[in-house]
Amino acid sequence: MKCCLLAFDIGGTKISAAILEWPTETVQTLTFQKLERVYSPPDADAKSDLRTILGLSHTILTTHKPLAIGVSFGGPVDWTTNTVRLSHHIPGWEDIHLGDILEAELGVPVSVDNDANVAALGEYRFGAAKGSSSMMYITISTGVGGGFVLDNKIWHGADGMAGEIGHMVVDPSGPLCLCGKKGCVERMASGPYMAEDARRTLELDSRQGLIIRKIISGHLDKINGQVISQASSQGDELATELMFRSAWALGVGIGNVVNLVNPQLIVLGGGVTKSGQNWWRIIRETARQVALPQISVQIVPAALGDDSPLWGALALAETAISS
Ligand SMILES: [Zn+2]
Predict the structure, then answer these.
(1) What is the CA(298)–ligand 1 centre distance, in A?
(2) CA–CA gap between residue 37 and residue 16 (Å, rounded)
(3) Distance between CA atoms of 72 and 12, rounded to whole angstroms?
(4) Which of 101, 146, 205, 299 is the most buried (most CB within 10 A)?
């Protein structure tokens, strides 16, 4: 049997498992030796998720023997004990010792971390930030999250909360965020919030957002981040204003981050990053304006797409072997 690293990416709607042969120095093309994905049923809970995870570990390991396991979890994690604190999407995940469970089942070291940190590690080890000394990864989709890799290691912060750029305030007089503050990056830049703001404006003013209305055939409940992005590219004024605000908020956030931490690279991933060149241009220009002139600001797209957490989980497994 060949040796491998085993990775899991546990999200709110699906669970993926992948293996990569060990040693990884031979990785030339970015392809897993094996990949399996299982979509969670609507009534999924931690117990059913755990059954899926253990089931996947057996189906994917028929020809390979794992040396270590890395896990990316979509929610807060105590990385020092490999314990899941909770999931915002799936009930029952409160204080589950996922590392212990997998270690007992498969008898190899396990490392568990949250998805933003793991995705950062994936881009650092295998993707857009490969070869850099320090980087921040930011995902912009239904929420905005981030993670740092500094000097070869995930930087967790004292409470494991480092990288929460989504709740950095960039406009104190801005709209109210779910976290209770006003004008957070996530409140202005994420897909669902852009959709919510568009919907409210369309309800109040029938002359606004004509292209948005056309795309959704008048069904206001169908507005989402993708619709806003599409309407903006077709010249809709309201959608363009919302996209500008999204990019501006992120640009201010990134400018502040580079002033504080001065990472070599900022890598952006997630659905909203597919919003076109204009969105990217505004982010880069705004970040440049906010950053001190001595600081170089390099903002690049993620190279591993939706698989950055899986690649990162493989990199976590790799560190679990050597630690
Ligand atoms: Zn917030």
Answers:
(1) 25
(2) 4
(3) 12
(4) 146
DSSP lists the bridge partners of residue 146 as: 138
> What are 86's two structure tokens?
């909770």
Q: Is the pLDDT of residue 28 over 70?
A: no
Give residue 79 CA to ligand 1 midpoint distance, Å.
23
Decide if 147 contacts 154 (C-beta within 8 A).
yes
Distance between Cα 166 and ligand 1 center (Å): 6
Give the residue-averaged pLDDT of 214-233.
Answer: 94
pLDDT > 90: percent of the chain: 87
Compute the distance between CA of residue 121 and CA of residue 127 in angstroms, rounded to an integer.
9
Report pLDDT for 24.
74
Distance 176 CA to ligand 1 centre (A): 8
Query: pLDDT tens digits for 90-128?
Result: 999 999 999 999 999 999 999 999 999 999 999 999 999
Six-digit token string for 32: 């897993």
Tell me, yes or no, if the pTM score tops 0.85: yes
Distance 174 CA to ligand 1 centre (A): 11
> Do 10 and 309 touch, CB atoms closer than 8 A?
no
How many whole angstroms from 74 Cα to the centroid of ligand 1?
A: 18
